[in-house]
Amino acid sequence: MEVLKSEITSDETRRSRSVFIKAAAIVLTVLMVLGAIPAFSAYADDSAPSSIAARGAAVVDAETGELLWGKSADTRMAPASMTKMMTAFVVLDAINKGEYTLDSEVPVSATTALFSRTGTWSNVPLSAGRTYTVRSLLYAMMVESACGASRALAEFTSGSESAFVNRMNSTASSLGLDAVFYDSYGGSSKNQITPRSVARLGRALVLYHPEILTFTSTPSIVWDGVTHGNTNRFVRGTWSANGATVDGLKTGTTTAAGRCLCTSSYAGGRRVITVVMKESNAADQYNDSADLISYGLSHAEPYDQNDMVSGFSDVNKNQWFASAVKTMSDNDIMDGVTSYLFNPDSQITRATVAQLLYNYDGKPYIYSISGFSDTSSTAWYAPAVTWCKIAGVAYGSPDGSFGPDDNITREEMVSMVYRYLVNRGVISGNSQADLSVYSDSGDVDAYASDAMAWAVSNGFISGTSEGTLDPRAYTTRAQTAQFMSRVVSSLS
């Protein structure tokens, strides 16, 4: 797929381009040695790229996950062989879970062997009845963009490509990507993903599976005696990235997708992920990417993979809530919304607060699930919400409902924690804090006044701005983690 048969240029054209590229590479090398151009060409000012020909593009800081620049960054487009990045993520995840190893032998079905030899897509030839290691197929998939290797890995991992695609889509959802996949190799134009999500996928690969860079930075492989060059010309050294080092990740080309490229690059201790989609020619594909790399590296934060907290790609150790998230996660009190995401800025629900208090109490066994009129006995939060009623932590509304999916306010959250500690005899419940110093103290509901006074007097919460408590504002997951970590730490 990297090159459709109908898009293959003539031998004469290829030779001419090859001579030009090699000559350009030699001139570039000489200039760098002589100091005529810097080793890394940083953006001269803070102006964003203005002449990117790609229909969609994105630049993401690998350290923070921040989108530094984008063009139609949230518009879904066909990714072509960049789809294989998701295939690689799922395969490497399976290895981490102990399902197999890089050295496991992969059998090839007759159908996949035939598919690898049709000549329609980028491929290395596979033979039915012969086995190949997972490692070798990953090299073929990420260097040569071998579509047959992708299908062989999919069948090996999940039994069939369709089952593997389900796993791809489930993983994409867990990573918070705006994407949908219909195959493992990128041939279908129904595969759709936004430029921002491609960049986030690239960042996730580098964060969770940094070994991917061993594969994607390899200039060429030899398969059955034939040398196959990396489809990424930055990696092959036939195109300059303005002095930055590019160590992956993936190209993609089909008629529907145009020319696409996702790069991982670094310079000066910083790393960025860039994406261009729907380019019309190779010159724009690489020149635009080089410009985006320069811009990104000029604006990115210093990169350290170890700055990720508790395995959440959206929590960095330098953020104000990082230590609180770590405390909650390490003590199995508060989980992420998925294995990869904490979603610190999203508002937290009443059911989630009930669950974290239930977790803190040791998840006592609930003999029968009952309680509120709007809580299903089969819901994930059913034991926690039932426990909340039994323990006197939450009373619900006069109509007998709990509102498990409702966002919770600051005073509601504090009140639930306060009731739990009082009912367990951990605190006396006698707080003397004067809330009148806050201009909006009158907004505190009567039921929550003692709880809010307790939280303020112990420094567990403070005003949201000078002189205000904002008791009825919805609280975020990060704010909840911060509040609970302070409470837990004070009691330990």
How is this structure best described in words?
This protein has 492 residues and is α+β, with helices and mostly antiparallel strands. It contains 16 helices and 13 strands. The strands form 5 sheets. A 5-stranded antiparallel beta sheet has the order 2-1-11-10-9, sandwiched between helices. Strands 3-4 form a two-stranded antiparallel sheet. Strands 5-6 form a two-stranded antiparallel sheet. The longest helix has 24 residues, at 11-34. The chain starts with 10 loop residues before the first helix and ends with a helix. Mean pLDDT is 88; it is low at 1-39.
Compressed to H and E, one letter per element, the order equals HEEHEHEHHHEEHHEEHEEEHEEHHHHHH
Largest sheet: 5 strands, antiparallel
Radius of gyration: 27 Å
Count of DSSP helices?
A: 16
DSSP, total strands: 13
The 3D shape can be described as: elongated
* N- to C-terminal distance: 58 Å
Instruction: Quickly give the structural class.
Output: alpha+beta
The low-confidence parts are: 1-39
Approximate helicity band = 25-40%
Oligomer: single chain
Question: How much β-strand is present in the residues?
Answer: 5-15%
Nutshell version of this structure?
This protein is an alpha+beta fold and 492 residues long. The chain is built from 16 helices and 13 strands. The strands form five sheets. The chain has a five-stranded antiparallel beta sheet with strand order 2-1-11-10-9, sandwiched between helices. A two-stranded antiparallel sheet has the order 3-4. Strands 5-6 form a two-stranded antiparallel ribbon.
